[in-house]
Design goal:
The protein has 86 residues and is mostly helical. The chain contains four helices and no strands. The chain starts with a helix and ends with a helix. The model has no long low-confidence stretch (mean pLDDT 80).
Length: 86
């Protein structure tokens, strides 16, 4: 019985995770999600303004944008950068 108590105490202290740590992880995930939303919102706003500036329909502009290989690489890079942030 004493051995069981000692082992459970050892496990409790070794695997201890504070509530503050849990809240920090949640806060980091929330900030990451918020950042992703803002970046994509900014991206859409920029693309919309460019389409208006060049007097193009949004769908046509987006098609031409994604047909450009360099833009595809940059957009994929943005996606990776945003999704890899803690």
């Amino acid at each position: 019985m004493v051995q069981y108590i000692m082992l459970t105490l050892k496990k409790r202290f070794q695997d201890y995770e504070s509530k503050g740590h849990l809240f920090r992880e949640s806060q980091e995930q929330l900030l990451k999600f918020s950042l992703m939303q803002r970046l994509w919102g900014l991206f859409i706003e920029i693309v919309t303004k460019l389409a208006e500036k060049f007097s193009m329909e949004m769908n046509l502009f987006m098609e031409q944008l994604f047909e450009n290989e360099e833009m595809n690489i940059l957009i994929l890079k943005l996606l990776r950068e945003v999704s890899d942030k803690p």
